[in-house]
Write a structure and sequence with these properties.
Elements (H helix, E strand, L loop, with lengths): L3 H7 L9 E6 L5 H10 L6 E6 L7 H4 L4 E5 L3 H14 L3 E3 L11 E3 L4 H15 L4 E5 L5 H7 L4 E4 L5 H15 L3 E4 L3 H13 L8 E4 L13 E5 L8 H23 L4 H8 L9 E7 L2 E4 L2 E4 L2 E4 L19 E7 L9 H22 L7 E7 L11 H6 L7 E4 L3 H11 L5 E4 L15 E3 L4 H14 L4 E7 L2 H16 L3 E2 L7 E4 L5 E2 L2 H9 L4 E5 L2 H13 L8 E4 L4 H4 L7 H8 L3 E5 L4 H15 L4 H22 L7 H10 L1 E4 L2 E4 L12 E5 L1 E3 L2 E3 L2 E5 L7 E3 L29 E2 L1 H29 L11 E2 L2 H19 L9 H10 L13 H24 L2 H4 L4 H12 L1 H7 L1 H10 L5 E2 L7 E3 L2 E5 L3 H30 L10 H19 L1 H4 L1 H21 L6 H26 L4 H25 L5 E2 L6 H8 L5 H4 L3 H5 L16
Parallel strand pairs: 1-2, 1-3, 3-4, 4-5, 6-7, 6-8, 8-9, 9-10, 15-16, 15-17, 17-18, 18-19, 20-21, 20-22, 20-24, 24-25, 35-39
Antiparallel strand pairs: 10-11, 11-12, 13-14, 22-23, 26-29, 27-28, 29-32, 30-31, 32-33, 34-36, 36-37, 37-38
């Protein structure tokens, strides 16, 4: 409908009413046209008639009286008829559209000459330097004529009333052609449709320019557009207004000419105004700025027209002309740094360097997307990986591009994805997780990062391909490490790789700094599993500490190899790390499997660019290069195929299909997923070459290649090549003995403990002696029947000699048999059994039980509980133990108990210079001074301080209250022997371990002093036993001297053995001679008691007179019940 006809009438205000004006319009003129005419008819100064019908001869008579005819019927046939009528009646004929081609003088075309418009347009285009423009044309007035005269690159047919065609043309061609300057020579209706479609297709933005011709300009009103219009017509916003403004201007000029020249001839006035056309110098260049139309001043320099270009505001508010600009393809990043102190944000920005370089590459590549430029919009809204600041993103919502790139974790990406979908955006990233893998769940998401699960799968494949059929798996307590290792465990089962360690207890609790907290049992389990390959999902600092603990447990370089989750060589080879020097040899051979990055020509070139430009980068920088290129290649395909590249579904569809050479090699999204697969995985292994650590590529794994596994550099294995899957370990300890070293601080602790025990023994012994045992004993002068207690005492004396000998110089080289005898009676069973894997603790526990039982017997004895509760079997048994067991525990077991309890403090060797690495001498599996060790050490110390003084005190008591014990020990000797034995034990635990030669000399001196003491202090009331006691100690002294001689001499061992045997034989002979002449026997034996009766007496079913019947009982019947009394009193 032609609404403009109604508007045309409005512009006829002010025309002289003396003249009649005929307006010919189409019968399709809308009713609003007539309504507006009726409203304004009274104000018109021209009387006029409107003919709302197709013109025919029936109304020709009505035109006869007209002074002026205006034809806007837009009908060529009617125009010819009107021309004939106007010619016949000599009425001036004004024509607007489809005017007759006749050169009749009565015909006035009220539009400018098409050639003149073309000339003016060309002058503007030439000044603007628009050499790469597209022209929109239609079938309207002058359009084809101007098309022939304009300079342009492309022409686009865009007729009015065909919006679907116009939209398709714009979205399929104009939008993707890269042309930034457009010239409109269509009619106003067409130009309005074109402007609408350009806005709808997001093309009215910075960097583009639009120049509308005189008949197009009423249809455009967007800020930044240039309009070529007749002065006074620049505000016309429709064709009707344009026609009316033209007609009104013409009629006003007619009035002015007629008044000025005092003529009343309209025809003459029209001829004088413009000779058959409107002069082109009335055309001017206008610019729409903030909805206001501004005329751009022009100046003639010779034949060239120069415009004030600085006064022009271009589309998008830019001051820069679009002649050299490109179409901006905006994409957005949520990687902006909001806090420079947050390392994660700086890391995100470093990764985004890959995007920046990718955009530069595609923008600068010759003949690639000419006329387009990718431009990123940085959105600084990242604050936390746990949540997104939606209010911040809302503030930057206008900055969202055609797709969005996020450098964050999968958790953050999920949150961001849910937010961005409301903006019809696609999200690109490099998330290494699997939650967003399914495109059905996340159809607007794609990741170019290889998930860790894929890399773990490749790692297990490579381990299998290298011939390893078993592994161990350890992980830290972080959720990502646990997930990573779970994938490894799952893949190991799928590939039939055995896991040797305990996977139900393989999580290391680590601190924020990476230190292991209470993880010794887990490390020991790995070592004991004998696995050669360990998959460790731990940080680098934790890995170094693991190596340190492996070394503590006896492993060396080549014994074990670790495959880990992350391996930054600058961290693992950091010399400031306290574990580095210790573990530097074991570091070599550590390997990692990762997807390929910086591959091929593109990858190498990009890596070089990153290094030159930023000096630092990560593998994720390469991933984000590819993430951008994935979107950019999809858009490029859409542009080249003439499709709408700004439609999100189009971008995502092409991104899933595109395949290109990227920074990481060939990039292609896996069908039906949001992820890509790496065409190659790289095995890197740490090596030490040329005095530095390197981590070169040693092998390639191709999941889908014809060559699956390719070794490109010799791998770091054992000197004999690829090791076996399982280590062979025959060490008695979880570490090689050579790894142990003297721990001086531990020695100091041992000396301090021994000194405290020595001082405590001397003080309490002197106190007990002075307080309780200063009395003497009666010498045995008459023969006595030897009793069971006498036999125990005699055996104790003999065994004690061997115990003392065992604490002297090492006699193993002299006589292994003698060494075994002395060790056995001193309870030194580690000469028979290797005290590993906890055996020592059973030995220690037996000594602690003996000590506890001794303390119990002392309590029972002190409080006469065995007598007070005689009717109870347990107390009768305790009474029997006091009589028969206490002498064994108090004398025979004195040295073994003290010696074994003291062993728990022997921590004078260590794997390092730390107390925590010191190892117990009797159990190399036990670290010292930890909670387990202290749980034994503290009770052992308490038992020493309880057992020793009680033994000193109760030794004399025991012999005082045994009526059948005839051999008595002098209390003074018992006190001296206690101190003497303690000294020997302590020297055996200290000096003998540190300097055996010095200890041998000190031991010999002590024995010599002890022998001298025995000359002046009678040990027993039985002289024969005193004599043998002295001879026995002289024999021990002789043995010590032989051992010292053996150390100093080069003579054969058998020579010293002969000398030893000669000396011992001489001592035995001398002893027998002395006892025959000076020391007669005062003890005799009778028939042996029945063991069965003794047992029956113990359980109360046999009388003692039947068990212990002897001559002594026959002589003195008062002693018949002596054993039944279970000790008749207490001290």
């Amino acid at each position: 409908m032609r609404l403009w006809y109604a508007v045309l009438i409005l512009f006829m205000l002010g025309v002289n009413s003396l003249y009649n004006f005929a307006i010919i319009v189409s019968i399709h003129t809308p009713s609003t046209y007539l309504i507006e005419f009726e409203k304004l008819k009274t104000d018109l100064k021209y009387s006029f008639s409107i003919y709302l019908q197709e013109f025919n001869t029936s109304i020709s008579r009505e035109l006869e009286d007209m002074d002026l005819i205006f034809d806007s019927s837009f009908s060529a046939a009617i125009s010819l008829t009107i021309l004939r009528i106007a010619s016949d009646y000599q009425i001036p004929y004004l024509c607007w559209w489809d005017c007759p081609l006749s050169q009749n003088d009565i015909l006035f075309r009220i539009y400018a000459n098409c050639d003149e418009i073309s000339k003016k347009l060309n002058s503007v285009i030439e000044f603007l330097n628009w050499t790469n423009s597209a022209v929109f044309y239609d079938d309207s007035l002058c359009s084809n004529n101007m098309l022939q005269n304009l300079k342009y690159k492309e022409k686009i047919y865009a007729p009015s009333n065909m919006p679907t065609h116009t939209s398709s043309i714009i979205s399929r061609f104009v939008k993707t052609s890269g042309i930034k300057t457009w010239i409109l020579i269509t009619e106003a209706d067409s130009s309005a449709e074109i402007q609408s479609e350009l806005i709808a297709n997001n093309m009215m933005r910075e960097g583009v320019g639009i120049l509308a011709g005189p008949y197009s300009s009423p249809g455009v009103n967007y800020d930044g557009i240039l309009k070529l219009s007749y002065k006074g017509q620049e505000y016309s916003d429709s064709k009707s207004q344009l026609i009316f403004q033209t007609l009104k201007s013409l009629l006003n000029n007619v009035n002015q000419v007629m008044e000025k020249n005092k003529i009343h001839d309209i025809y003459s006035a029209l001829v004088s105004i413009f000779h058959l056309h409107i002069p082109s110098d009335e055309l001017a260049l206008f610019n729409i700025q903030n909805s206001t139309i501004i005329q751009i001043q022009e100046t003639k320099i010779n034949t060239t027209t120069v415009y004030d270009i600085n006064a022009i505001k271009w589309i998008g508010g830019s001051n820069n002309p679009p002649s050299n600009s490109k179409t901006k393809i905006n994409f957005s990043l949520s990687a902006g740094i909001t806090n420079n102190s947050i390392t994660a944000q700086i890391g995100n920005q470093i990764m985004m360097n890959g995007v920046y370089i990718g955009a530069e590459d595609i923008n600068n590549e010759t003949n690639r997307l000419p006329g387009f430029e990718f431009r990123f919009q940085d959105i600084p809204c990242y604050t936390s990986s746990a949540k997104i600041d939606t209010s911040c993103y809302d503030n930057y919502s206008d900055n969202f591009g055609l797709f969005h790139i996020s450098p964050h974790s999968e958790a953050y990406s999920i949150l961001l994805y849910n937010y961005l979908t409301q903006f019809d955006l696609n999200l690109f990233g490099t998330s290494d997780g699997l939650i967003m893998e399914d495109k059905n769940d996340y159809p607007r998401y794609i990741s170019t990062g290889i998930p860790y699960k894929y890399e773990v799968n490749a790692l297990l494949q490579v381990i299998k391909l290298m011939g390893f059929n078993s592994i161990a798996v350890v992980r830290s307590n972080s959720s990502s490490a646990i997930e990573w290792s779970n994938w490894a465990i799952e893949d190991a089962k799928n590939y039939k790789i055995s896991i040797l360690n305990n996977i139900s207890n393989n999580i290391l609790n680590i601190s924020a700094s990476g230190s292991i907290i209470n993880g010794d049992s887990i490390i020991e389990n790995i070592v004991n599993s004998l696995s050669r390959i360990v998959i460790a999902a731990v940080p680098e600092t934790t890995l170094l500490e693991m190596f340190s603990k492996f070394i503590d447990l006896g492993l060396e370089a080549g014994d074990i190899y670790t495959a880990t989750k992350s391996l930054k060589i600058e961290i693992i080879t950091n010399i400031s790390n306290p574990n580095f020097n210790k573990t530097k040899d074991m570091i070599s051979g550590t390997f990692i499997i990762g997807s390929a990055f910086f591959q091929g020509e593109v990858g190498k070139r990009t890596e070089k660019t990153f290094m030159n430009r930023f000096q630092s980068y990560t593998r994720r920088t390469c991933d984000y290069y590819d993430a951008f290129m994935l979107g950019a290649n999809a858009i490029e395909i859409l542009i080249n195929s003439g499709k709408d590249y700004e439609k999100s579904t189009n971008i995502m569809r092409e991104a899933r299909k595109v395949k290109f050479q990227g920074c990481n090699g060939i990039i292609k999204v896996i069908d039906y997923t949001n992820l890509r697969e790496s065409e190659m995985y790289i095995m890197n292994q740490i090596m030490y070459k040329n005095n530095s650590y390197i981590i070169p590529e040693v092998a390639y794994y191709y999941p889908t290649g014809s060559t699956v596994f390719q070794i490109v550099e010799e791998l770091v294995w054992t000197p004999s090549g690829l090791p076996s899957s399982i280590r062979i370990n025959n060490w008695p300890c979880p570490f090689k003995p050579s790894h142990l070293k003297i721990f001086n601080e531990g020695r100091t602790i041992v000396w301090i403990i021994c000194s405290i025990i020595s001082l405590f023994t001397v003080i309490n012994t002197i106190f007990i002696w002075k307080k309780f045992w200063t009395n003497d004993i009666k010498t045995l002068t008459e023969k006595q029947e030897i009793s069971f207690q006498d036999s125990v005492l005699l055996s104790t004396v003999l065994i004690e000699l061997f115990q003392v000998a065992s604490m002297g110089p090492d006699i193993e080289n002299l006589s292994g048999f003698m060494k075994s005898i002395t060790s056995s009676v001193s309870y030194n069973i580690d000469d028979f059994v290797v005290l590993t894997n906890g055996i020592f603790w059973y030995v220690l526990l037996s000594m602690m039980l003996c000590s506890a039982y001794w303390v119990l017997l002392c309590i029972v004895w002190l409080f006469n509980l065995h007598k007070r509760f005689y009717n109870f079997f347990i107390f009768r048994f305790l009474g029997w133990s006091i009589t028969n067991i206490m002498p064994i525990q108090g004398n025979l077991m004195f040295i073994p108990i003290i010696s074994t309890l003291l062993d728990v403090f022997l921590c004078d060797k260590s794997l390092s210079d730390s107390f925590s690495d010191s190892v117990l001498d009797k159990d190399c599996f036990q670290k010292c001074w930890n909670s387990k060790h202290l749980s034994y050490a503290i009770p052992s110390g308490l038992f020493i301080f309880m057992y020793q003084p009680l033994a000193v005190y109760f030794r004399p008591i025991w012999q005082e209250y045994l009526p059948l014990l005839h051999i008595k020990t002098h209390p003074k000797f018992l006190m001296i022997k206690s101190v003497y034995q303690i000294l020997l034990i302590l020297l055996n635990k200290t000096l003998k371990r540190y300097d055996d030669y010095v200890h041998s000399i000190v031991f010999a001196i002590l024995i010599f002093i002890y022998v001298l003491v025995l000359q002046y202090v009678k040990a027993f009331n039985y002289d024969r036993l005193n004599m043998w006691q002295r001879i026995g100690n002289i024999a021990v002294l002789w043995l010590a001297l032989i051992c010292i001689g053996l150390k100093l001499s080069t003579e054969k061992v058998y020579v010293w053995i002969i000398i030893l045997l000669i000396g011992l034989a001489m001592l035995i002979i001398i002893g027998f001679l002395l006892q025959k002449k000076k020391y007669p026997s005062l003890l005799y034996r009778v028939e042996q008691k029945s063991i069965e009766k003794i047992i029956r007496w113990m359980i109360g079913s046999e009388e003692s007179k039947d068990v212990f019947k002897s001559i002594s009982y026959a002589i003195d019947e008062n002693e018949i019940d002596s054993n039944n009394r279970f000790i008749s009193g207490s001290h």
